[in-house]
Structures are given as structure tokens and as C-alpha cells.
# Entry
Amino acid sequence: MKLFQKSAIAAPPTDLSAVVYRFQMANQDRPMPEDVWRLEDAVRGLQIFGGIGSGKSSGSGKEIALTYLRNGYGGIVLTGKVDEKDRWIEFAKQSNRLEDLVVFEPGSKYQFNPLAYELNRGSNEGGGLTDNIVALFMSIVKMGNRLDGGEGLGKEPFWVLAMERCLKAAIDLLKLANKGMTTLTEETNPDFQITIANIANILRDAPVGSGHYNNFFQLSPSTNFEQHKALQKWANQSYTIYYLSWASTYINNQHKRLNEKLNSIKKLEERNRQEALRQYQNEMAAFESDKRTLDVVCAYFLSEISTLADKTRSSILEHFFAFAAPFRSGMLADYFASETSTEVLPERTFEGKIIILNFPVKQYLQLGIYAQCIYKKLWQQAVERRNVNDTTRPTFLWADESQYFINADDMMFQTTARSSKACTVFITQNISNYYAVMGGNSAQALVNSLLGNLGTKIFHNNNDAVMNEWASETIAKDYRGNLTSGDHGVSVSDEYQYQYLPKNFTLLKTGGKTNDGLVEAVITVAGKKWSNGKNYAKIIFDQNLK
# Structure
């Protein structure tokens, strides 16, 4: 039996009421008008479950992926298995989307620095704020710690706050020093960019002991050659002092420039003076903010952390260096710690680009998870920031073997994904995978919340008892007639039973030659009644075996 060939869907792909896919019941020879899946369903998220070899990737997964591509969606593809890239290249060929494909992988020309991305995105959207950059780094710390299976800083508030304060000071220092470099030399220098390597240099070379605060301000700004020579010698020995010197020079020059500007404004005619004065006041406010920041940074590195007890100071620094280690050498340092290529900016997916993060977990293990989860987080944040209207192109997040990539952030993302026109697709074997990777006392609550926020669920063949029981519970129970016979004849009673029994999931067709390429599944969509009059349907896909 071959399936009815579906005609192309011509509805506008950006309209929430647009039909995205037409499902075919397993007992019918063609899709029924009621059995459609609309964009409003897709943006509420899709979870596909299925045991090994159940046809989840080659059945429902393939059909939905091709549909998204044919409708012009952009998105990101996370890779668990080494062949995922090749599968998506084939999907792109079949849907004429090869030109929109961007493969970000080791050996490619692309790089993505998450800290620099957060710094440089639009300031009117919250970009460039030090606190947001610190929060991003701390979330990366949590990701890495979860992969190691530890609690890390989570139960030690002192160390969390201490590291955040340390990072904030280092990032603020780099930002001020970079202003000095670019303003005074009109050049850019990678040593002044927000990178983990540069932050590490600052923390490694921070002075230890007392008296450094007074010493620095006796030398900066230098008033004679001897002072300049002494400061230069100190800066050559310490990146911290080197950056502080650039930052201090920037502040001093800005102060001088603004004083000169005010004097020139006083000489202007009245009709020109007001506008010039307004601009001056704005510049002065920015200067005062930078000056306060420099005061805090100088106090931190030259007086506060420098005089901490050796054990306390070394513990703060060791926490940072331990979590920063993957970004200082190796694959993450090569591709996620220096520059950012415009081709892999998350916003490119809003234009229809499909970015494959080809760092497969099966090949790169923990580093593959780390790299892809960092990018996923920033992509999700970018999606949530974008302005959406009736013509906004939908985007998708695709994660086969999704147990490697889920975290608590996904739960929150799904609560607003619909309004962002973001279509999440997670594919995994069973719910126990999720419980295992989430870990901790709240694992079950987090997983249940996440799955509750994924509006469509497709269940393929499965031999996992826990999974099948959960699937039957999700489809829900209903009253069913039950015949019983006894000495006094036959009686009929209603019993509250599963609509779809757990054992039936073990009997669904799994595709391949044995099943003529036919893959069966059971689908349920929040708020939807199917042509069979129920809240679920047994559906079928054709693998189109040759």
C-alpha cells in the first residue's frame, strides 16, 4: 500500500491559520479535510517519541522537516548523530533550499563568540550591558556543570556572587580600555575584545597585596617621564595594569575634551547654543557613567580582590579558570571564543537561512553539547526579541536526539514561542531520557512542564513501558463499554479506560522493507478533534523506499 500523494499546500506560510501539513489516517487512503496541522499548531511545539528503529526520524521527522523547508522557514539544526548534516543536505536538495543552507562545523570559515555577540547586538534591545554578558557567562557555567553531573556553584551563593562581581569588573575594564584604544588610535585590536582569553589575562595578572590603588593613581595620568616609564614597566608585566592604563587615559582625555567643548559652547550665539548644550549634557552623562565604572573597577582590582585572603582569592579565580578552560584551548576556543561571522548570526535564520550546527555529540561528546547549547540559548533569546507581525517568517529549532540539548531554558522559551512564530521540534526515544539528563530533585517537574508546553506529540513504536504508559495517559482516558457475562446473562457497564492502550504502541509499524516502507504513529494535538471524532489519531507515513 502506497500513500495518497499530497498536493502542494498553497496557503500563505506566515499566516497562523495556514495549513502546514495534512496527516493521513492509517485506515484511510487519503488525508481527510479535518486532519490538518496548522502553523498555529507548529508554533506551539512538537515532541516526537519513538524507540530505536521506530521510523521517527525517517517518518514523521522527515515529513515535517521537508514541510518547513518547502514553506521557506529558516532555523537551526542541532546534531546528535554524525549523519544529521547529510540528512539535512538531502532535505535541502529535495526542497530547493541548498542556497539557504549554512553548515557551521569544525574546518568551516565560521566563528561565533557568544560574549561578543551579546556585547554588540542592538543597545536598544538590551545589548552591550555588562550585567547581561555576565548572566550569559554564568548560564554557560551552569551548562558545563550540568554536563559534568555536579551541582557546582548552584548551592554556594557566595561563590556565585563573587564570580559575578569578578566577571563584571573584568568586562567593564575591557569595555573601557577598548574605548580608549579605538578613540585614541582609531584602530581595533583583538586584545581589547570581550573574550574569555582576555578576561583570563586580566584575572591572572591582577595585583596581589596592598598599596596598588594609591600607586596606580600616583602614576596615572603621568606628569613626567619617570612616571610614564614606571607605569609602562608595570603595564608590561600585567595585563590588568595595561588595560587600566588605557581606560584611565580614555577617561582623562574625555574629561579634557568635554571641558574644551563646554568652553567653545559658551562662545556660540544663543540660537546655536541650546542644541550644542543638549548634546554636551548627553555626552557628559555618558562620561560620568564611564568614570563611575572606572572607579569601581580600579577599586576592585587594586584594593578589594588584591587584599582578600589568599585562599578566598584563589578560590574565586580557580572557579573562573575551571569553567573557562574549554574556551581557552581546543575546539571551543577555535570556534566560540574569538570572532563572530555574520553568516552564523542567529538573526540570519529570520531571513530564511538554515544553520546546521555540525558539532555532533556522537563525535565531539561533551564539547558538542556545550557548543550547540550555547548557540541554542542565544538563538532562542534572539527569537524572543524580534518584532512579529502577520508577514513574519516562521523559524524552527530542530533537535533530533533532543535529550542531549534540553535544559530548563527550553521550558521558559516554549511559554512564548507561539508569539515569536518559533517552531520547536524535539525528537527522542522516551521520556526517561529527559528525566535522566535533567537530574536533580526537580527533574520530573521540569520535564513535565516542558512537555506540557509542546502542543503536539507524535508517538511511534516503542517498547518502553514507562513511555507507553505516559503516552496513554497523555491521550487520556474515556468511558468505554464493557461486556461481562455471568449466571444471569450478559451485562454492559461503562469503565473509565485508556483510549489507546499502552501495549498498542509496541505494535505500530516501523517502516523498512518488512512494512513496505510504511511507518505508523499516534498523534495528539492540544485542542484538536480529528476526523475520527477523537483527540488522537493513528497516522501513517511512507518512507518511499526505492
In short: The first helix runs from residue 39 to 42.
